[in-house]
Amino acid sequence: MTKPLPKRASVIIIGGGIQGLSVAFNLIEKGERDILVLDAGYWQGGASGRNGTLIRPGFASLAWTELFVLTVNEWKTWSKRLGENVMFTQRGYSVVSEQEKSEAMLLEGLKVQKRLGVNSRMLTRREIDDMLPAINKSRVRAVQHQPDGGVAPHHAVMKALFSFCERNGADIRYRTRITGVERTGERVSGVWVGDELVQAGCIVSCAGPNNPDIAAMASVGINGFGMRIEAMALEPTRPLIKPAIALIDSLAYFHQTSRGEVVGGTEVPERPRMSLQVDFPVMANMAKVYLEMFPQLGEVRILRHWAGQLHASSDYAPLLGEHPAVRDLWFSAGWSYGFAGAPAAGKLIAEGIIKGHIDHRMKPFALDRFEKTGPIVEGGIVLA
């Protein structure tokens, strides 16, 4: 029998994926125990169970790099703090340029990264041969390598987060859909689940593609649009690819798992729709890119092909913080690298709620930046 919903919670988090559970985890570490997490779907049913799991600290802009230096530092500590192994392996992350323009972007980004102490460098041709011996060298113009980057399998991460939060008193409910957000004057004061009102001290929306719906329930708007990302896994092969890889010009990203599967995807324009059904043309494009960069994969079979949904901001940078038009409604939204960035987002939002202070690393990602400071320009992301 399902236990009844509480009448009130200090913090209600909408969304039980890695973003929502990261916020809950960080709140618990700061002493907050009265937390209710509500998710309309099932555990790992959203992007947290469908992503590429790649993590890197360095980008081309100051704002992105500061945020992701923090997130990598957080990833390093999660296993110890959560009490379970999240399996974050720092096998390195190589960003590959195929054209002159993207090479210039990598070189400029390297200057930003060096200012912030990121361990990154441009590889020599000999180092490329050693690091990526199987790659088609004729397509490679330059490679920026970040040794501290890597991967973390989502099932291990989500298990560790869920167990920690539940063990420390958070009330986590899946298959529990929010039907409304209650407003009292200029602040939000609770959520509706069917005909039940749960009052809240504050609300944090980490609802992925449903973040605009949550905003609308509070009679406010947020920047961005819904989009789909598709990925696939190939059958296991001998070790072929050492680091995680992003191909800036081919809009591709992938890595090889410990089982030998090559997992990743490419971004291609497709018919606009929000669905978990996969498209054959997208799969064909992925296969084409894989074959062009790693010809040895030509005879390897495709095991799985899946789609995921997200809500991306118009500059593809996250939307982090309290909504400027209504108090006590916080967002971690607009993500295109949400799995990788969750540790930093959870830490910064929890600090904002508990201390009432907005960290300088979160300020550039404010929800109203488009009206105040303009979009964030970042050339190092791999999205169409």
From TrEMBL:
<protein>
    <submittedName>
        <fullName>Sarcosine oxidase subunit beta family protein</fullName>
    </submittedName>
</protein>
<dbReference type="InterPro" id="IPR036188">
    <property type="entry name" value="FAD/NAD-bd_sf"/>
</dbReference>
<dbReference type="InterPro" id="IPR006076">
    <property type="entry name" value="FAD-dep_OxRdtase"/>
</dbReference>
<keyword id="KW-0560">Oxidoreductase</keyword>
<dbReference type="GO" id="GO:0005737">
    <property type="term" value="C:cytoplasm"/>
</dbReference>
<feature type="domain" description="FAD dependent oxidoreductase">
    <location>
        <begin position="11"/>
        <end position="351"/>
    </location>
</feature>
<dbReference type="GO" id="GO:0016491">
    <property type="term" value="F:oxidoreductase activity"/>
</dbReference>
<dbReference type="Pfam" id="PF01266">
    <property type="entry name" value="DAO"/>
</dbReference>
